[in-house]
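Researcher: Go.
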Amino acid sequence: MTRAPLVALTILAACAGVPVRAEAPSEGVSAARSSTAQMAYDWRNVRVGGGGFTPGVVFSPVEPGLAWLRSDMGGAYRWDAQAKRWWPLQDSVSEGNYMGIESIAADPVDPGTVYLAAGMNWSAPAAIFRSTDYGATWRVTPVPFRMGGNENGRGLGERLAIDPFDHDRLFFGSRHQGLWQSTDAGATWRKVGSFPLSGLGLPTDRRATHGGLSFVVFDHRAKGRIFVGNADPGAQHLFQSDDGGKTWHPVSGGPPADLLPAKAALGRDGVLTVTLCDGIGPNGITRGAVWRFDPKAGDWQDVTPIKGKDAPVGGYMGVAVAASDPDTVAVSTVDRGDPVDTVWLSHDGGGHWDELYKRSVRDVSATPFLDFDGKANFGHWIAGLAIDPFDANHAAYVTGATVYATNELQEPGTMHWTPWTRGIEQTAIITLTSPTGGAHLVSGFGDISGFRHDDLAVSPPHMHLNPFLANTNTLDYAGRAPLVMVRSGNIHAPVVPDTSLAWSADGGGSWTRLHVPAGKAHADGSPPPEQTGNAAITVSADGSTFLVETDAPRFTRDRGAHWQTIEGLPSRVRVTADKVDARRFYAVDFVKGRIVRSDDGGAHFHAVAGSGLPADLSAARSTNREAPPPLLADPGRAGALWVNLDGALWHSADFGETWTRTGKTIEIERYGLGKPAPGHDDPALYALGTVDGLRAIWRSVDGGNDWVRINDEAHQWGLRIRVISGDPRRFGRVYIGTDGRGIVYGDPVEGRK
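Model: Structure:
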């Protein structure tokens, strides 16, 4: 038997806004040392609602009103029918790779028991999580097989399944290393040697992956019967065991060999419905089918809704069978761009189909961003689909941007769907800023651009449009005229049409396109940075000057009507504007190892003494357009600067002329500034960093000399954090942009440490 080390302690799941104390540390949880100063904080999500890909939704087969959801980079969720919201279940995790959920399995006997197959990418650790208290605490077992919860093929599944006749027995169909079995509720695992496919092994290219064994399905009425799908190329794609996995045989006949099984659902009549695609998705699928296999008769039936030359481009992935009626079957399309992805519903086992998007309407008023490009369509990447086993009218499907639900699945006429997202924040944050006036928070998201957040508890109506740039890479505001803002971004294509730049006069509520003279293509043929979203933009403290980091950096003082070339500023160095003195701009010239400054509103830059800094400033260089700037300006004092150099924090109070290292006890990854503490001059500092070996979120109120931990074991979010900032108008408030759990914000709990 292959044994993986069992971590027998618990992880505590965090409920948003509810302070929770972990009883003991465990794998993936960094426990604070007793010698580490800690301050109690109240943590909540900034509400957007959904926003990302949740490839699988699973209803409990034994408890009404209970459901589970898996996301590709933000962990798992549990639906609380009484509270009418989803609760995040893995906010206590500190191992980032565990936030990508490959599969989820709800126990068929005990409703409080649930398993997660956790592993975002095959190149990092994977584990099986088990909870017996509805996800409040977890036992974590690191496993020897790798997963890909955020890789191609993440819509396949479910790969993890529980034997209904022995619910301590599980099977897991891995991507690369064959079929695995546990007989002790996931505590130990061994490879199933009798299974015909041993797996293709780990890829040699880190960017590649395999589909592997796409699903495991137990027959709840025939003890010992198991089906396993194979989504790797080959002659055989469905395998069956009738003796509990001791022996296996390929299921002959059926779909053509070039179609890969994606998902499967078994009705109470024992018939298996399988969706198929010509790729593992979620992109690149051009063809698909739906087949049903009856193991009693040993025959297949092609029940694809649209066949032959009339079939649109795209495949089929989601599948569900009503528990009350095995002839009620639903399947979803994937990558069907013309006209749109859809759900098909049949009441006669696939003999006839009803295309639901044609008679459906969607009310997205609770998450208005979904209407940004006209009325929200039915969806895309519909990889997951489920029918409530206790209410066949209640069904849900997932998309690349949200989860929809209806209570009218069996009803004729217009079908109403609403986002089923309260509590779900499944987004990647690239940047954010807290201005000195206007809304306290303006954000830059991946995929959905970003927002002005007038109310942190409400999904914002002010999305960044005109232009819509899927990814917002940089945001800046004018320190003394904070309603003036600028942004840059890109789309999911090599070149951004029209412009990658915009400015706002109302604090991010509305935007105006900003055009800069087109530069020349590079020697290698690549386009100039202003055409790709690589050109960062900065605004002066009074809002009068915009500076854009094109190959030859330029500035404008008339909102883009005229541009001038900047003298003395190296290309692509990430400029920072002084937040008080409109004449001053700063940058780190990492090539020549110096700080450069403009004293005339960005027209000219020159080197400053920079005494005290290391000679080598190359640590300030970043080729990633989404990386936060290393150099920050104090929102309240002219000439007060901070710079992070390879984890070390340096401070200047004289416009960059002299520098002092501070924060020697901390190694900083991300940091931001906020309002000073009462009685202090320096801004409050907030950082993701490591102190005495503990990686956590920290705050300093004395210029970085002393640091206090402000998160706890229940609030770690995989420590997948891309940006952090304090609030210049509210002491103690901190905003954290995570990579998968949206924006979280924290406030100190008065009287508690």
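Model: The two ends are 47 Å apart (CA to CA).
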